[in-house]
Design goal:
By secondary structure, this protein is α/β, with parallel strands linked by helices. The chain contains 13 helices and 8 strands. An 8-stranded mixed beta sheet has the order 6-5-4-3-2-1-7-8.
């Protein structure tokens, strides 16, 4: 799949033209026109857009053709910020395929040395790439938590979204992780994205289905399933525009706005760092080039970050629709 041809400005205009204003809906339903931050707990580091896959739903627009990658200087600035942020207990490393960044293992080791939980957002197939043969063992040695993308427990559904043969390779990777203790004493969580124009569904029910089918068919164990609504940006937005379905999808999201999701929104308790060190309220804002009020990781301090107003736009309907959606799955029952 080639790089998305739609710019961030074009994406924002398309979202503005096909949905009610998010801040107006927020004020109408919750009585507030701004969304304030809460205590900063997570430093999410997006190390770039280089990936060994090019998935249809990818909001990062990552692929093997991309070259954007965090350098050693910015990686060190992230670690310096982590050391001066006493309330941050989690480092969430994402991409692209974050493991392809040359500074990935250093970030994992140094973050663990600071006593932080490290989350690796893994696409599973990376474990079988040349040069990554010892990746699973490295992650296990660092006791990193793995959050792994698996669109469905059926091969056809997964391959449709992520490419031919991805399901088989993902199952092989999950079995290897289980052998190393993931799914038991080491945390292994899966991520589900819907394949059509509908919300992610009830997380507890889907988790039961995934657990039963993966155990029965492949003997695979995992801890939790995270359900995430598809974000109407980048490649998924392009597919909606091609099918003339964007207005329908945005109307569904806006109509399913759920104020019970607001307290748990990931943007309230984390900072998202781009590969160049620019700061964002979330990974989705990062892809839409909507920077946070504080500009760069080198300037980040906890008090100023927690005092800011979060930058909002109409894509925020995806995080507040239905049961809600975040990097940790659903936000309400």
């Amino acid at each position: 799949m080639s790089r998305s041809s739609i710019s961030s400005g074009m994406q924002l205009k398309a979202l503005s033209d096909t949905a009610p204003d998010f801040t107006a809906r927020l004020a109408e339903i919750s009585g507030q026109r701004r969304l304030g931050a809460a205590e900063l707990q997570t430093l999410q580091i997006n190390v770039g857009k280089v990936c060994n896959q090019a998935c249809r739903h990818c909001h990062v627009d990552a692929s093997p053709m991309r070259s954007e990658s965090m350098n050693a200087e910015v990686a060190q600035l992230c670690l310096q910020a982590l050391a001066r942020l006493p309330g941050v207990d989690t480092v969430d490393i994402t991409g692209g395929a974050p493991e392809l960044n040359p500074n990935f293992r250093m970030l994992v080791r140094e973050s663990r040395a600071l006593g932080k939980l490290v989350i690796d957002r893994c696409n599973l197939t990376i474990l079988q790439e040349p040069g990554q043969e010892d990746l699973a063992e490295f992650l296990a040695s660092q006791q990193a938590e793995i959050v792994a993308s698996l669109p469905h427990f059926a091969a056809a559904r997964t391959d449709q979204q992520r490419g031919r043969g991805v399901f088989e390779r993902s199952i092989a990777a999950l079995r290897k992780l289980n052998e190393l203790g993931y799914g038991d004493q080491l945390r292994l969580n899966l991520v589900y994205n819907p394949s059509g124009l509908f919300l992610a569904g009830q997380q507890a029910q889907l988790e039961r289905e995934f657990r039963e089918r993966l155990a029965a068919d492949f003997g695979i164990r995992f801890h939790n399933l995270y359900c995430m609504n598809n974000m109407p940006i980048s490649r998924f937005l392009e597919s909606l525009l091609r099918a003339n379905k964007l207005e329908e999808y945005m109307s569904m999201l806006a109509g399913a706005f759920n104020p019970a999701t607001l307290d748990g929104l990931m943007c309230r308790r984390q900072v998202s760092v781009g590969y160049d060190g620019q700061l964002y309220d979330c990974d989705f804002n990062q892809m839409l080039e909507l920077p946070a009020a504080i500009g760069h990781i080198g300037d980040l301090n906890q008090a100023d970050w927690e005092a800011r107003s979060i930058v909002l736009h109409n894509h925020c309907f995806a995080c507040t629709a239905g049961s809600g959606s975040s990097c940790g799955g659903a936000l309400s029952a």
